[in-house]
Amino acid sequence: MREIVFDTETTGLSPDRGDRMVEIGCVELINRCETGREFHAYFNPGRPMPSEAEAIHGLSTTFLSDKPGFHERAADLIEFIGDAPLIAHNATFDFGFLNAELAACGRDPVCLSRMIDTVAMARARHPGAKHSLDALCTRYGIDRSHRIKHGALLDAQLLAQLYVELTGGRQIGFEMAVTMIPTGAGDVDHAPVVAQLRVRPPRPHAASPAELERHATFVGRLSDPLWARYGTVVDPTAAAA
Q1: For 39-71, what is each residue's pLDDT tens digit?
Q2: Among 57, 89, 131, 150, which one carries the catalytic annotation?
Q3: Does residue 150 carry a catalytic annotation?
Q4: pLDDT in tens, 73-130
Q5: How far apart are CA 181 and CA 78, in angstroms?
Q6: Measured distance CA(241)–CA(96) in Å, rounded
Q7: In what order do the strands lie in the sheet with 21-30?
């Protein structure tokens, strides 16, 4: 299964108030393993960078001044993500900016049914704990010593490791898994998504007729079995029939 882990950096907190995306980083996973394929781009937002935002990610107006606009790289980004599920930390924030940028250049939005939110997953798995990317990397022993400031590609790389841990780590399939499900509120494309723990159902198993026959033969060879003294012996082949 192909999945894309991504992160964005922006000029602020709300595209509705004119904030823009200035960086995106994407990491490709196939069956929860990083393939080495990545997409990374900086964008000129066409507006000055607020000092508060620059203090977080270090991207200045001067640095971004010669970068392409989002519309110039939109086709490359869309081709890279394809129709894969998209994983982000506090995903409604990143999806909001991504879809605002797509709308601004006349492209269709990414359906929210593709969204997987690792914050929601972490809350389901570790209720009451801290759920920031830094805190979760510390919890799972993911090295973030090189993370001085926020960076979209670096954060996507860290998040890819975290996502694997949240979905079972190196023992995927041996423990509870987290499923992202729509809450049912609103229309399908805009239904909020939450995490729900599910337990993998046990594999059906039963003795075959040949195994039951061998068992009955073995029991028949026992001399004075203990259970015969205190109750009726049940023929397992008859019970199976």
Answers
A1: 999 999 999 999 999 999 999 999 999 999 999
A2: 150
A3: yes
A4: 999 999 999 999 999 999 999 999 999 999 999 999 999 999 999 999 999 999 999 9
A5: 24
A6: 60
A7: 33-42, 21-30, 2-10, 86-88, 115-117
